[in-house]
Specification:
The chain is α/β, with parallel strands linked by helices. Helix content is 28%, strand content 19%. It has a five-stranded parallel beta sheet with strand order 5-12-6-7-8. Strands 9-10-11 form a three-stranded antiparallel beta sheet, with no helix packed on it. A two-stranded parallel sheet has the order 1-2.
Length: 371
């Protein structure tokens, strides 16, 4: 259930093991967060579609526009299939609960990225403030900058505490995204027609370390206002667990599904789970890693034998020092110049050229060898 990175990965391995696999998804196309959450300048749809077509050719069936718990019940899935893998992701936007959060011009970060993914223009003003400093906030900011918007990110902690990928933060600075650090949102300011006209922020100062290992932001009682036409909330995502609870699936605060980390099973033995639905918002690589473990566990349970290793060839290499090692610098992949990113979603990290790739594989990576 779910055609994001976890669901696609599980399907890829299970169909190769000989199982009949059907993937249901609420969206009209496969990909999940890879398609509807990550902008094309980071992951072009053409690259994603190539991978999806491979999975389809292997025999995996897809059923779209089918929402878990609403369009199809978990009991129905359990009766119809020998095993069910829940990879429904974490799409529920965390609410900030401040005055004015229901004004015209207030959006959720995930909703903005979904609209942009299907080439729809969100009804945003020219000046946009984004609250939050995770990957959704940075992705939304960089996407809107490409559309010519004036974007400001508001974050209540220091720059060093931003949870977004460091590479994305660096690129957002290169694209001259504005930042207001140590600033906590207080009120979404509106006009007489309840339209956004600004954001009132409270300036913060640093206190002692909190349980996350970061310095705790302390209110100063001093306020400022940032004029804007639109406000985007991107302070985190949760798992929508309403249907999970109704179906007897144990969850943690925030909706995350409780699983046995050895078998990937939930509180219902035929139901397995993984990806962001278990970990909360994480990376695609981590979701795919969990799905691989789940596929192995599902196959072992259904077939009553361990066969997963048969999918892979044994690989061995000689850990010897090259006869004539050469000292060469690391190859740096090409990046699209900032001036060429405006007005489009062309891929920024273009990877190695053929020559660079050949040079890179020829480098000596034995760090214990002195040249």
């Amino acid at each position: 259930m779910g055609a994001g990175p976890a669901g696609l990965t599980a399907a890829f391995y299970l169909v190769r093991l000989g199982h009949a696999v059907t993937v249901y998804d609420a969206f009209p196309e496969a990909g999940g967060v890879l398609r509807y959450g990550i902008p094309q300048y980071r992951l072009p749809h053409a690259v994603l579609e190539k991978e999806i077509q491979l999975i389809k050719k292997l025999g995996v069936k897809f059923v779209f526009n089918t929402q878990f718990g609403k369009d199809i019940a978990l009991d129905t899935l359990e009766k119809q299939y020998d095993a069910v893998y829940l990879a429904i992701g974490a799409w529920k936007e965390t609410s900030l609960n401040i005055s004015g959060d229901d004004a015209k011009g207030v959006f959720a970060g995930t909703d903005v990225l979904k609209m942009l993914a299907v080439d729809k223009q969100p009804a945003l003003g020219q000046k946009v403030v984004i609250i939050g400093a995770g990957n959704v906030a940075i992705d939304a900011a960089r996407s809107l900058w490409r559309l010519g918007k004036e974007v400001t990110i508001v974050y209540r902690r220091e720059k060093c505490d931003m949870p977004a990928n460091q590479a994305e933060i660096k690129e957002s600075e290169a694209e001259q995204i504005n930042f207001h650090f140590m600033s906590a949102p207080s009120v979404v300011l509106t006009d007489e027609k309840n339209r956004v006209r600004g954001l009132k922020i409270e300036l913060m100062t640093c206190g002692g370390l909190d349980t996350s290992g970061r310095r705790k932001p302390i209110p100063t009682g001093k306020f400022d206002e940032i004029p804007c036409d639109s406000v985007i909330f991107a302070i985190g995502e949760q798992v929508d667990d309403d249907q999970l609870k109704e179906n007897g699936i144990n969850t943690l605060p925030g909706g995350r599904i409780v699983i046995n980390h050895f078998t990937q099973q939930t509180s219902r033995n035929k139901i397995y789970a993984g990806g962001d639905a278990v970990t909360g918002p994480s990376t695609a690589a981590e979701a795919m890693g969990m799905a691989r473990k789940a596929a192995e566990a599902i196959d072992a349970e259904l077939m009553q034998e361990k066969r997963f290793h048969l999918l892979f060839r044994k690989f061995a290499y000689r850990n010897v020092v090259p006869a004539n090692p050469k000292k060469t610098a690391k190859n740096v992949s090409y990046k699209l110049a900032v001036r060429d990113r405006i007005g489009n979603f062309h891929e920024v990290d273009c990877g190695y050229t053929g020559e660079q790739a050949r040079n890179e594989v020829g480098r000596c990576l034995r760090c214990d060898v002195r040249l």
